[in-house]
Amino acid sequence: MTLPHTPSSPADADRTFQVDLRGLVDLLSHHLYSSPRVYLRELLQNAVDALTARHGLEPDAPADASADAFGIRVYADGSVVRVEDDGVGLTEADVHTFLATIGRSSKRAMGVPPAEPIRGWGRIAEQRADFIGQFGIGLLSCFLVADEIHVLSRSARTPDAPAVEWRGRGDGSYTVRTLPASARPRPGTTVTLTPRAEAAEWTRPVRVHELARHFGSLLRHPVTFHDGTAGPGAPVNPEPAPWARTHPTPGTRSRALAAYGEDVFGFTPLDTIELDLPAVGLKGIACVLPEAVPAGRRHGHRVHVKGMLLSEQAEEILPEWAFFVRCVVDAESLRPTASRESLYEDDTLAVVRDALAERLRAWIARTAASDPDLLGRFLQAHHLAVKSLAVHDDEILRMLLPWLPFETTDGHATLDEFARSHRTVLVTASVEEFRQVAAIASAAGLGVVNGGYTYDRQLVHRLPEIRPEVSVADLDPATLTAHLDPVDRETELAAAAYLAQARDALAVFDCDVALRTFQPASAPALLLDSREARHERTRSQLAREQQGGLWGDILGHLRQEAPRAQLILNQLNPLVRTAVTIDEPELARTSAEALYGQAAMLSRRPLRPAESSLINRSFLDLLAHALRKDS
Questions:
Q1: Could you say which of 169, 191, 420, 434 is the most buried, measured as most Cβ atoms within 10 Å of its Cβ?
Q2: How many CA atoms lie within 13 A of 167 on its CB side?
Q3: What does the pLDDT look like over 176-189, one tens digit per residue?
């Protein structure tokens, strides 16, 4: 909303207006901005825009941090906060247009005529892409911490322009008046805040200095902080961005960027990746994290727009798979949202995200080709991130799949190492299946990879694309049992009665029982069962129980022939050799239940309630039998 401009005259040089600001301040504090601290960022943005506009009018005016007399000064002494700039300044018309935005509807009601065009501003308005913020709404954000805002400005567009004063109060009243040019000898704008007592946290000198450094450390115009004591003030941004500096050697540059990354993020980067996208005016660095990021957790990135810190949590600047880096960038063309605390999702951001992703891929490729030690440390920490990338990126797959670590029957090994020992690689569908078979498969000389972790099974199946001499197949129970040696006919006949008792005892779990010989001999039994098979058996059981109803019909339609679980007893194990000789039916059933329970626990899968009950009951029965025998 804009207060219409009316030419100044002695009669209206100091006019007071009244509007209701309560709803606006509530909107700013609870819906637009995340914290009251943004008031200083808004003031700095206004000052930067004013300097940019002045440089547009006066191209020869100094526009970098070497010009101490052409910059921004922040003051805080405990009683007021003041931000002063040497920018383009405001005419009275500008004041009505940009600062009295809160009064348009009430002024129209009073019959004030529409605003006249502002001479000289059209060319600057065409350059809005050079500006960070919007002056009016940004200034009003100061009501988050202040009871009164005082603006004193003098325009650089007219040599003899008078000074203009705007004074707004939290109750909604404000005044606009013109003053002699001597009230502000130099062009520019000074904004002074009278803080509220409850906003002391954000307006203390130490905090104001901290906020100025936080938001303005990469600004291209010089910013100084003054705490009311004598002296020239403390530089807020004494040096340009680290990637804009000249260094004598590449090594010196690399160390300087790493030191900056450590200062910003609080960790020593494993490496730093320079980011430079000239088409969108983006420069910065990506810092490779030295440790793995917990699954599902993403780090935000620091994004500056034209030097001003926009966000510390800009996850959208990089694709999801790039959670092994944290970035700090400064961009010219990225578009902020209304609050200027995040990025607007548009085509430019999509192009930037894709281009930055390509820079990260190029770094991985370069590291793989030229620095195996760094590559090893990187993969040790971030193999999950690289696996997620390799699933969809053929180039990364070819470069890095042989070097990625996997859990195998030979321990943790890269696929390159594993394929040297096993020309046929078997892969399980789940962690549970791998843990069931790992020891036996290893003893049988089978090469099995745990495919139960995220991305692993997909990637192992792509190994022949990189190593054509290697074949990959899914591991199933038939593959494993084919490598278990049968017992001789005499032993099997002697154990037949026990095996029948065992099958009867374990029928409740749809579990068959067989006798084989396999290594290691220390393993008494192997339980072959899958989560999918258990779920299918559960559906079948429910279908039988609900037979005839709608729910039973649905379950019956879904039911498939579920494979039974298999308990493979190891004849080489002393416990099993003793068990199969038991001729007492109850004791035989109890020992079979105990062997099943032990095998289920060794598989390290969650036990069902019936299995937990079976384990407890079997051991209690064995103890009771032992006590009866002793007595």
A1: 434
A2: 9
A3: 899 998 899 889 99
